[in-house]
């Protein structure tokens, strides 16, 4: 008898990520189609494990607001994020983004998350910095299902199974192929040769504003 190639069947699982909108403030959309493992994943929680490079961050306060409104669910590692740090002083972030079933497709899941570009150093001859975002890993957490070991492998994830009150469950990494290996975020940057002009204009604007404030205080202020 011929044994079917289980690994080949697992290749039907796919993941797609898209960066929507433009500029510094974007929407990260992640879609996953589990393909051959869809039946095994019935009743499981599905999530995308995303590694954000230093040039991209998630605002934890914005995320907390969205989670209170049940618009998204995600876990940040670390959970303390310096939203003011420039790219060259920031560190990587790990995001576990819980996904919801897509009713338009059997075995499909999707989720979105607002992300933001950080300020970069001025460029030499370009007004854009490129930030590379690798394709996410798809994970499944199941308490009531027995997953096929040919398509799924245990994964080390320090997070609870979304919405499951039975306590800790095993996360599995889904064998999949990305539609794209990476996405590119284009972040506007200044040009290094503009630094002297920017410094002079900033000093002039600061001096003018300070003089206007001082004049207003002298004219309208009450001194003992």
Automatic annotation (TrEMBL):
One of its GO terms (biological process) is GPI anchor biosynthetic process. This is Phosphatidylinositol-glycan biosynthesis class X protein. Pathway: Glycolipid biosynthesis; glycosylphosphatidylinositol-anchor biosynthesis. The keyword ATP-binding does not apply. It is found in: Endoplasmic reticulum membrane. InterPro entries: PIG-X/PBN1, PIGX. It is a single-pass membrane protein. GO terms for cellular component: endoplasmic reticulum membrane. Keywords: Endoplasmic reticulum, Glycoprotein, GPI-anchor biosynthesis, Membrane, Transmembrane, Transmembrane helix. The keyword Transmembrane applies.
